[in-house]
Amino acid sequence: MRRRVAPDSSAMVAGGGGGAATEAELQEQVQLFSAISNGEDLGPFVRRVFASGRPESLLSSLRHFSRSKELEIEDVCKAHYQDFIRAVDDLRSLLSDVDSLKSALADSNAALQSAAGPLLASLDAYLEARSVAANLSAAHDAARLCARLFALLARANEHLAADHLYLALRAVAAAERDLLPSAPHPTIRRMLIRLIPAIRAHAERKISKEFSDWMVQIRVASRHLGQIAIGRASAARQREEELRARQRQAEEQGLLRSGSAASTPTLRDQTYSLRVEEDDDWAGDDADDLAAAASAAASDGGAPCLDLTPLYRAYHIHKTLGLEERFRRYYFENRKLQLTSDFQVSSLTPFLESHQTFFAQIAGFFIVEDRILRTGGGLIARPDVDALWEIAVSKMVSVLEDQFSRMQTANHLLLIKDYVSLLGVTLHRYRYAVDPLLDVLSKHRDKYHDLLLSDCRRQVSEAVAADKFEQMLMKKEYEYSMNVLSFQIQTSDITPAFPYVAPFSSSVPDLCRISRSFIEDSVSFMSHGGHLDIYPIVKKYLERLLGEVVDGSILRLIESGGLGVSQAMQVAANMAVLERACDFLFRHAAQLSGIPLRIAEKGRREFPLKKSRDATGQLLLGLLKKKIDDFMMLTDSISWLADSPPPSGNEYSNEVIIYLETLVSTAQQILPIQVLRRVLQGVLSHISDKIMGLFLSDVVKRFNSNAVMGIDIDLKMFESFAENQSHLYSDSDDYSANELKLALLEARQLINLLLSNNPESFLNAVIRERSYNKLDHKKVVTITEKFRESSDRLFGTFGTRGAKQNPKQKSLDALIKRLRDAS
């Protein structure tokens, strides 16, 4: 293609405008021609010439431009004419070649058509046959697919009829997966789309109903399982307590030596190791609990049996349906609601009667949950079980707090505590945290013991009130074993002859039995409650029982003032026996608590009945003093200015000696020697005080040496009595019969002073310290002022007025004067 050559604008302007054109017009023509050559819009040029009123110039310029283009075209045609002619010639020659080629092609086509006609007919027949074969194959495949589909559906119907839901769902799933996409007919496809969800919905409804029935049955089975598991824990505890009882019996019989105590494991060690073994073999215990429940169900046709198959079947079916997570939530929520309903405590039935069923239901619930956790294939997770357990613990703690706050009987509280502790032992084997339950039991420990102390206070008061405080008679050996040996209060290992009169009254074994029962109840409450060392706690409450209840009851008896001398003596004898009984009670508490006796001996305190023992001694001594005071009233018959001393002492002394000898012979049979010593010493000291009181009393205005010699005879009788009691000190190296005589020392020193030939020697400090150290100089002044020698009568005869004064009386007068000056 030839390139277009732009016209020479200056030439066209020069040729068209001539010399008449101005420079401006030339410039406008150049711009116009340039715009036309470039194909630009000529509107501005037209508006400008019309605006200036000279359109002729524009038309002249356009004509000039047209003529110049025509000339240019002409020049171009002239330049290319030869080439065009040659091209036309080439086309003419080519046309003849094309005609010859067309003829050849027509001939070839005719030949091909005549040769390919039969082949095309054969090809059409082949294509038709292949189409028929494809249709037959498709029909065969469709028939085979239908046969397989109907076989699966028939199998699914059989499984549904046989209640084999899982197999039916598998058949339906296979049909949906393999056959539904390639269903041969839309009708069959629509049928499958409608029936497959219906079959799944039917399976879901049926398995949900079975699961609902299982939820109803599992409550009864769980309660039965809980009762069996707690019963097995109770049997294990009973075996353990029997083992402890045998060991205590062996210790009491002396079969366990202190030398082997270090190498022999203590009961606490045995208990602890037993618990460790249970913890290590907790899965086996689960199997044992289930086996025991199954055995009980087999032996009792009406007992429910734990069967988790419906649950696992329902879980498996839901998993097959793709509803695994929904079933998990559904199971958890239903079990949670079931647990909540188990917490309902009937207000119509006392909790004491329903507590076993209540706790057995909860125990069985969590045993089942533990089993499902370990064998359910992920049906429930550990956090879910822990959440349920926290809810259960919180509710059980609330129920226990409420019920314990209402109970006013220690035995009822103990029964519930025992069952709760068994529940804790049972569920502890399944790794449940039971510490909150044990904390509740520990929290109400004080209330239980307060109730127990209240019961014991009533029993002790009744036992003390029923006692006549007479020596207890035992006719048979079993009575001796029951009342003496069982509390280790015997004084000899030799069995006495029967009938046997005990040195104590009937209240002593009664108090021992009450105290022993208190210890056993206290240990029973404290045991299996999470405390490893319960002896200090049991000891504290035992000391409260002895110090507050028993001691208080005996003190009230003493303060009532209704006891005579023989009864007070019997109470004092009882206190000595109770002191040995208290040692036994503390040892018994230590044995039941599972600690060695040597450890219990280290922490032994003083006698807890010390107040009542001291009060009993004071009462007995006071009664004896009162009796002595009655005899001392006979001193009114003493002649203080007698002409001669009584040959066998005064009447009161004989009566007192007879009474004291009778008292000693009786007291020796029941009173301990040390108590009898204290009593006799107090009585003789009181006699000494009464003799001193006689000389100091206002009734005695004057007395002479004959009266003093009579009192001296009385004192010698009392001192002889004291010496005759030397057998009471045969077992003591620190005391002797002189101890009793020392109780009469003040009266003896006074009599010695009054009978002395030189009473003025009392003023000598050495002699006074050696011979008159018990005498008070004020009393000596008062008494010596009343003393007159027998020859120095108040109204003597005229023959004796001028006689020389008695030297002894002179010495007494000097003594009196010196003592007055000193005071």
UniProtKB/TrEMBL annotation:
One of its GO terms (biological process) is pollen tube growth. Pfam families: EXOC6_Sec15_N, Sec15_C. InterPro entries: EXOC6/Sec15, EXOC6/Sec15_C, EXOC6/Sec15_C_dom1, EXOC6_Sec15_N, EXOC6PINT-1/Sec15/Tip20_C_dom2. Residues 62-230 form the Exocyst complex component EXOC6/Sec15 N-terminal domain. Keywords: Cytoplasm, Exocytosis, Transport. The keyword Transport applies. Residues 260-270 have a biased composition (Polar residues). It comes from the Eukaryota. The keyword Transmembrane does not apply. One of its GO terms (cellular component) is cytosol. It is found in: Cytoplasm, Cytosol. Residues 1-20, 247-270 are annotated as: Disordered. Residues 436-786 form the Exocyst complex subunit EXOC6/Sec15 C-terminal domain. PANTHER family: EXOCYST COMPLEX COMPONENT SEC15B (PTHR12702:SF1), SEC15 (PTHR12702). Component of the exocyst complex involved in the docking of exocytic vesicles with fusion sites on the plasma membrane during regulated or polarized secretion. Involved in polarized cell growth and organ morphogenesis. During cytokinesis, involved in cell plate initiation, cell plate maturation and formation of new primary cell wall. Belongs to the SEC15 family. This is Exocyst complex component. It comes from Canna indica (Indian-shot).
